[in-house]
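Look over this one:
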Amino acid sequence: MGRGRIIRVFMALTVCCAANAARAGAKAFTASGYALPTGMPVTVVLMRPDVDVGQLQGGGVAQPNADWTNAARGNLAAALAANQRARGVALTPLDEQTGDAAQLVADYSALFQAVASAIIEHKYYGEKLPTKKGRFDWTLGPGARRISELSGGNYALFLFTRDNFASDARKAMQVAGLLGCIVGFCGIVTGGVHVAYAGLVEVSTGNVVWFDILRGSKGDVRTPEGARSMVDALMASMPVQPGAKPLGTGTVIVEPAK
């Protein structure tokens, strides 16, 4: 997905987060009746997480921070591995690829971003698509099985997160806005913005079998502890094997599959 569309989707999520701060949390969609298979190993390949961490300046512009981003990417990968171990699921980060394989990974990462933006637009904040008739029916196509050829996994996990922490100038503007409310000139200034989403793809079919958005901060991803808190909240509703208990609670919307 192009950078412009990523920015538009992120801005839509940002507006939603600001407008629904009181209702911040996770909201997941899972195909009806879907569970991880039994009688066979469940191996999830972790696609390279799309992570961007920066600082929100006084005027509201986000300034990327490479050191924060690199730290967060490592922390999130470790937290995801720990989360999946607790589920009895093998999580394997996809190795760096070269040549045609690298292009394949880039293409499917971009395709997932495009599908994720459509899910966000039509399942969370936009008009329902009449052609789907309420089904949770999204796919990367059968060609996604090529991911398994690279990794040996039977599922692919995608993660996208944007964390912008308020600078001192931004915090000062927040205080000024609140003080203005006292004298009748109220200007609400939002603080840091934190949005994350994840999706699980069954690579044999390419179907997106689970998708979750976490709105609001559940932990500082720049630290191992904060990353674990965020990941555990985001992944709480991920499907489990029949008879197994989910690791956490959250708002899960189960809709008919195709």
User: Anything to note?
Assistant: The longest strand covers residues 155-166. The mean pLDDT is 77.
